[in-house]
Design brief:
- The chain is α+β, with helices and mostly antiparallel strands.
- The longest helix has 14 residues, at 264-277.
- It has two domains: 9-99, Elongation Factor Tu (Ef-tu), domain 3; 109-325, Nucleotide-binding domain of ferredoxin-NADP reductase (FNR) module (Rossmann fold).
- The strands form three sheets. The chain has a seven-stranded mixed beta sheet with strand order 7-10-9-8-11-12-15, with helices on both faces. The chain has a six-stranded antiparallel beta barrel with strand order 1-2-5-4-3-6. It has a two-stranded antiparallel ribbon with strand order 13-14.
- It starts with 8 loop residues before the first strand and ends with a helix.
- It is built from five helices and 15 strands.
Length: 328
């Protein structure tokens, strides 16, 4: 599937480490190795640019990958990501990965590239990003903190369907749009804060696999939007919501698959909205649990699952939505 990667542990070097806002950075790394097995969107690397302190590496989602070059979106929330923010071109960084199970090759099941809304309520999900927990320095593993704002799904200062590169709609999109999507599989990718990270590569990969697939991206932020133009370049429609709840912008009934990554409360709200819609879509969710080892040995990232406790780093971070949210 898709583009790229490397061996398990690489001594990489910083190509670029660009500030996107006061807290968000996009870091591009040369892994120094030839192309290997493809990186599935939603997988992550354990990164470190220091010696013995902090003790733990940080789990950061892959934003993009191209040959031996991998890009990471991260937010400064603690000691580890603060150290990352000071890295300059040429600086060394240890990259251990990719780890975890990402989003599926075919997010809509049998519906992909065929017809609208004929999938079953399966689901699964992906992508962990940010500073890992298990460290008392205040770093938030998987950046579940998201500015400390419950939901960071952003709220609509830009309005509904703000950017639509297909011309389907700009503005409110009032009325029944179902008819225009029959015969074309439609995927929603819903990210909050740093949880938007895996959907850039996801768009590129799914576009390559299914050229006719409709890719709608919903980006939620608490105070300032980032990477909007970049997402416009790879998606059919980009909806940006700043300061409110991006889940309000999503009509779950219109999609064959929904992928989400971000604060747990945002994803739970989206899942409940999906259930209420009666949608037959697949639902894929990424869990941003605290991580320490990244390989399933320490159990720090254990999350409750319908079939028993699972390790977010090894069994996930992508899970079927019903497995993590579909039980009491």
């Amino acid at each position: 599937m898709g583009s790229i990667v490397c061996s398990k542990v690489s001594q990489g070097h910083i190509i670029e480490n660009k500030a996107l806002s006061k807290d968000f950075y996009l870091m591009k790394v040369d892994l120094g190795v030839g192309a290997g097995a493809p990186i599935r969107p939603g997988r992550f690397f354990m990164l470190r640019s220091w010696g013995t302190e902090p003790v733990l590496s940080r789990p950061i989602s892959v934003f993009d990958a191209d040959g031996a070059t991998v890009s990471f979106l991260y937010k400064v929330v603690g000691r580890g990501t603060k150290l990352f923010s000071g890295l300059k071109p040429g600086d060394a960084i240890t990259c251990d990965g990719p780890h975890g199970n990402g989003f599926p090759d075919n997010p809509a099941g049998d519906a992909a590239g065929v017809s609208a809304h004929d999938g079953t309520a399966g689901e699964s999900g992906g992508g962990t990003t940010g500073d890992c927990g298990g460290d008392t320095t205040g770093d938030a593993a998987g950046v579940s903190a998201h500015d400390g704002k419950a939901g960071e799904s952003g709220g609509g200062t830009t309005g509904d369907c703000a950017w639509d590169t297909t011309g389907d709609c700009t503005g409110d999109c009032a009325g029944d749009t179902t008819a225009k999507h029959i015969g074309r599989t439609k995927i929603a990718m819903v990210g909050g804060g740093v949880g938007i990270a895996p959907f850039y590569l996801a768009c590129k990969v799914y576009r390559g696999l299914y050229p006719d697939m409709r890719l709608d991206v919903y980006l939620g932020f608490s105070d300032e939007g980032i990477l909007i133009k970049e997402y416009m370049d790879v998606a059919d429609k980009v909806t940006v919501n700043v300061g409110g709840f991006v889940t309000d912008d999503v009509d779950a009934a219109q999609y064959d698959a929904i992928l989400t990554c971000g604060p747990e409360i945002m994803m739970r709200v989206l899942y409940q909205k999906y259930l209420a819609s009666g949608s037959g879509a697949q639902f894929h969710v990424s869990m941003e649990n605290r991580m320490a080892c990244g390989i399933g040995a320490c159990l720090v990232c254990t999350c409750k699952n319908k079939s028993g406790n699972k390790k977010a780093c090894k069994d996930g971070p992508v899970f079927p939505g019903h497995e993590v949210f579909g039980f009491a």
